[in-house]
Amino acid sequence: MRKRQQVHRLNGMLAAAAGMAALLLGAGPILAGAAAAKRRHVPSPVPNGFYGGGAIGPRHTRTQSDIQYVNIKADSRARSITFYADASAACQHTKAAANTELVSFYPTGISVHNGHFSATGVTPADGSQGSPNVSYSLSGHFVTAARAVGTMSAHGTFPGANGDVATCTVPRVSFTVTDPKLSIGSGKLVAGAAYYGNMIYVPKKDRTPFVLRVSKDGRHLAQLATEFNYDCTPSVGVAGNGFFQGRVEWPPPPFPIDKHGAFTIHDHGHRAIPGEPNLVGDETVVIHGRFGRYRLSGTWRDDITVSNASTHQVAGSCTTHTEQFQATL
Q1: What does the pLDDT read at residue 6?
Q2: Cβ count near 151 (within 10 Å)
Q3: Which residues on neighbouring strands pair with residue 6, listed in sequence order?
């Protein structure tokens, strides 16, 4: 227990001054109690909060090894979370060249205590919680009700084609996630800053991670990355299903930001169709965004005309519809 502070009256001090000293002495415990109450406040997630982000480096790299995708979903009582990670792993192969691949782990029911959370484990072999048989470790805490930070690592061994075996490692990396729907964040334009949030797949209201980095001069987007979903007609990419996930990581050249804090990206090119080696996609991407007081926000649409790679006959089409993204510092 703290020793009570003593207030000493100087000889000859006026009675009014003594009264003031007594008032200050009486206020001391009140002020100390208020400070203690403030110290006792621990940030925690909001009930059903959905936090998105991960990590993004200062510039585009060929392997994109500096990009991590993370979502955190709080339960209805904000006492536990589900953690979704698609992490960039360095992979060594027995019969192929080293590369960077995504390793996934989605542990559930992680307790939040005094704003802190942690988990270690191995994902099930059936792939129901990410990549099979992945050893993972994660820890973090909520800085505010709208923002959490932490670190994660993972390791796994995966069989491949023709007897190849990949050993993949995610070294301990930092992550940041925010729930940009809350108005207590900031979306102002800051040179060199990273922004974290969610891509919202409007038809199904699904959300996936979104990360963006501003260039050091503050006049361009250095890079932005997200995971997103397509609807395809007829089914393309997954047999019997017109819905599959893809990932995009935009390379340079840097995209300009205008004097009002807005940017537009219009890109056209060709891309492979996951799981369909005989198909090719003719892709058009249009992105609009703006930095604002509370959040960075915008829209993202990706349309693909799918054709036979040999005959060029149109086989179908895929679209993300018009998705919405929100992110904060």
Answers
A1: 34
A2: 14
A3: none
